[in-house]
From TrEMBL:
InterPro entries recorded: DNA_Partitioning_ATPase (IPR050678), MipZ (IPR015223), P-loop_NTPase (IPR027417)
Name the record gives this protein: ATPase
Domain of life: Bacteria
Organism: Paroceanicella profunda
Length: 270
């Protein structure tokens, strides 16, 4: 069966689509067959990134790796129960198709709680929660005492992940590997950065997730979206995309992320 990598965070702007795209290219370049599902049915940032990539290839007359994509739609049935059943069936059919053709499937969830997102979390083999390095975004994971920064308890999102874990356990599936990705970490040592790090370490022990360094705050990650490229494509894609020191450092962050995820059967290309 395909290994399901789900990127979930109920707050927008955390870097889910950028992370999804770089992970896809890293996996594909290591010889894996990769599928992609974008569950943000409104914005579809992950699929927009891939559309930009297809357009870039056409303009440059070059070939770059692309994933097998399945586009899901929201049910239009009036009955809540019937709509839920229809979406469950569509999701199951998509995973069955991916199982036949892919080694890994990357599922990008919306910044909101939806039925599709809930199903993806329950099905995940690896759950990645990218979050910006701030106390505002840490609220996604836990409630914090404003006076002393102590973790008071898990958030609604963390409780949802816990329930998804219970569903997997009852189904006899292997436990999900939950990874919290600290994105947009400031280069400077700051009080807020230390508080977030301390609170996250405390919470990780209490509810069971791994902390992995993500991507620093770099302009290059935003610049690449319009061309559909990633930092791993720049040498192959050409088009005047030079490798500055900032790009080399950012590319190394991508490789370190892939190594830290420790996905089965994946060898990160140097």
């Amino acid at each position: 069966m395909a290994h399901l990598i789900v990127l979930g965070n109920e707050k927008g702007g955390s870097g889910k689509s950028t992370t999804s795209m770089h992970m896809f290219v890293a996996l594909a370049r290591s010889g894996q067959r990769v599928g992609a599902i974008d569950l943000d049915l409104r914005q579809r940032s992950f699929f927009r990134y891939l559309e930009n990539r297809a357009a870039y290839m056409q303009r440059r007359a070059i070939n770059l790796v692309m994933p097998h994509q399945i586009r899901l739609e929201a049910s239009k049935l009036d009955s809540v129960a019937a709509a839920k059943a229809e979406e469950e069936e569509r999701f199951a059919e998509a995973l069955n198709e991916m199982d036949r053709t892919c080694d890994f499937v990357i599922i990008d969830c919306p910044g909101a709680h939806t039925r599709y997102s809930q199903m993806a979390h329950a099905a995940a083999d690896t759950l990645i929660t990218p979050m910006n390095d701030s106390l505002v975004d840490f609220d996604l994971l836990a409630r914090v005492d404003p006076a002393d920064g102590r973790v008071l308890g898990p958030s609604i999102y963390s409780e949802m992940v816990w329930k998804s874990r219970q569903l997997r356990a009852r189904a006899g599936l292997t436990p999900v590997d939950w990874v919290v990705l600290r994105n947009r970490v400031s280069m400077l040592e700051a009080k807020n950065k230390r508080r977030v790090g301390s609170a996250m370490e405390d919470l990780s022990k209490r509810i069971g997730f791994r902390i992995v360094p993500g991507f620093s705050e770099r302009v290059v990650f935003r610049e690449l979206f319009l061309s559909g490229l990633t930092l791993l494509d720049l040498k192959e894609a050409g088009g005047g995309q030079g490798l500055s020191m900032s790009k080399i450092a950012a590319r190394q962050e991508v490789r370190e992320l892939m190594r830290a995820l420790n996905l089965p059967g994946v060898t990160v290309i140097a």
